[in-house]
Design a protein that fits this description.
single chain, 429 residues, five-stranded antiparallel beta sheet
Length: 429
Amino acid sequence: MFSCCLYGLRKYKKVIQSDKEVLSMKLNRQVILYPNKTMKRVLDSLCDYRRYCWNMAIECWNNQYEARLIGLPDSLIEKLKSKTEPLSSEEIELLNQYPNPSNYSVRNELVSQKEDWQYAMSSRVLQEAVKDVAKAWNIFFKHQDTAGRPTFKTRKSSKQGFKTDRASIHNGQLLLDKPRGYLGQWKTIRFKGLSLPDGKITLCSVTRKNGRYTATFTLDVEPTRLTQTGQKTAVDANVDHFDTTDGRTSLKPDLLNPLYTRVRHYQRILARKRRRNPRAIHSNRYQATRTKLQRTYERIANIQKDLLHKFTTDLYQRFDTIVIEDLDVKKMQMSKRAKNLHRSLFGQFRQMMEYKAKKFGKTLIVADRFYPSTQRCSSCGFVKTGDDKITLSGNQKHGTRHNEYICYHCGYEDDHDHNAVLNLLALAE
């Protein structure tokens, strides 16, 4: 019976493998920047310029889209939406006169409308900002149910930044492209972080958040192939831990407890200030406390991200084939059980597993989100349905708890998470 079940499970998996002929791949490395006063002013001005370019690109995109809607007849627009009827030669010619806004059309319009002061800024910042706007619109049109509409950015946001493809490393320090006509001092910027691998820097993203500057380098590097072990495993992701065939890895180590305490402390202070005086949010003390809270959040996120990197790399060092779940992260975040600080970073975990599979030459299997790994018996293949299902509070009908699995068909008993791991592992057969 179990072998028959395995045959039927093939539709529930998506296999991600490394292309053996890939000569290079993208790799990101983040470092902390320590600019002097001169370069701080330069970085701040570039952040402001990027925000300006983003907002202008949004406005230009909207104008071009509205011009297209005005120029095209309603009948043609409905025909384009339906995609059922072929277009005539006259309609195709009319579409060419009113094309959809794109990266190139928006960029060309903004470049042609440049003002004199813009020539003292890096042209690469404008081009990368327009690229990001185009990507944001494409994501919105493809995933309108989940992706938000691109909006204008405000200078009040604690996070600002810019991108450039003209950055380089000179004597172990960051050197940005000096814009044409710049008359001030141009310095290299000292940074600290992980050592950069050998490779070409294709993109540099500089971010200013809560007064701190970081840079993320995107490099073209050669894939690192790991030794084949012939082993396979599965990962069951939970709110605060991961379960594998080798045991459990916590996402909330003890070193995070003081940080969680600090977060609750800052939250109480801010809430008390808002209750006493709603206008206190504009005070310097309120903003200072809010900055401390955001830095604590950032510290927690960095620790968990570092833990994820070590966990995922260790998996690929020990196993050739790994099975993970395709979880509905939004629904998990909305549940009461998952309502905590930073949750499990499921999105980052999925991203790390996918690009490291290609990097290390291993195989990743992603189980479909409808695959009943938590409801299926790993021994006989029986799937619980209806009132027999296990929920976050267990099963009231049979009086079972959430952390235990009891098969009503064959009597198999196991830990709930371990049973899910075995079901995921079945997809690797």
